[in-house]
Amino acid sequence: MVNILIIDDEENLRKLLARVIELEGYAVIQASNVKEAIRLLNKENIQVVISDVRLPDGNGVELTTRIRKEYPGVEVIVLTAYGTIQDGVNAIKNGAFDYLTKGEHQEKIIPLLSKASEKALLQRRILSLESRLQERFGFENILGENRLIKESISLAKKVAATDSTVLLLGETGTGKEVFAQAIHYESPRRSKAFVALNCSAFPKDLLESELFGHAEGAFTGATKSKRGYVEEANDGTLFLDEIGEMNIDLQAKLLRVIETGEFYRVGESKARKVYVRFVAATNRDLEKESEVGNFRKDLYYRLSVFSIYLPSLRERKDDIELLASYFIKQFSMKINKQEPTLNKSFLKALEQHPWKGNIRELKNVIERSVILSEGELTEAILPSDFIVEQDENSLALSTMEKNHIVKLLKHTGGNKTQTAKLLGIALTTLYQKIKDYNLQ
To answer: What is the pTM of this model?
Structure first.
């Protein structure tokens, strides 16, 4: 049921209006002043406020501004006295849904109330969706207690509220797209599109078409006009991953749209206009690339208005346990499996690993381990390239293989069929290796 708050110090008029509205199926709450109205707004789930302009402890126009700021899902209808229409106009400028003049309000209030309540409910659904998106993609979704990652998050939070172009630097797998999403969903553009394009995924000619779109007949196979990523991201954010892989000729066209908001679809001569925020990412040293002519200096300077370095997992090994625990919980829920315990030797193996693939590699290893686990995560189910407390004499390939088979046999309780499955080899091959390594 939609809840309506009526604010008016004239008791008889307030009660009459409440009765009219209640007969239409709305729930009505009443207040005689601003102080009482704010208390009710904090306590009750109000969708629409109907407020007199003249109140004992305030002004309805000023109250409208406060309500729109502090209670964004609430619509306001203002009641003005005869001859004070300017008050109603001012209220609309301050965010009121509409205004009514006393004397005619009883006849017009119900249709207006219906429209206002529909808008309030729609606005609440939008706010709820934005909240869920922010919870899923916001900075709270970026885990880490390490000093370096905290510094990166702090910088990203500061730049998120602006429209500045951002360049995310770091190795592959450090979470650059996660950061880009967080910057978008913590920005004023959060309700608009976040569009991601991997520049290394397309050859030069196709990348231009994907980025800017094309006209019908622009090239063989262009049977109809197509919008590009730039247009899809209009009013929102365009994330350009692996920007260092973009052809230098195309870089000039990208620079133009970043600086002017203008671009041309492939095969068109008329410029189009967009309002897009750009976030780019690379694992290359673009400054060095620009020095040797592989990347435009002017584009580099334009992209690096605000640069953020994302540390590798090797630089934040103190976060491995936190990240591993999170992924264990996530993947256990995903496959509807009881969450396994984290063995100390398993954790130590994670901490010793070089993590060339960074967080992405850790995530994949944990997913595999959760699938293979039987109540506990042990080093025996880790991939064979993980080394746990081994000396130099144990690094021979045959020794590593032997040790890994021993660990898996111990893990499976000697079940050779299951051990062969975990190793990804035939059972007959396992028997041969057991014989070769004298493990019987």
So the answer is: 0.65
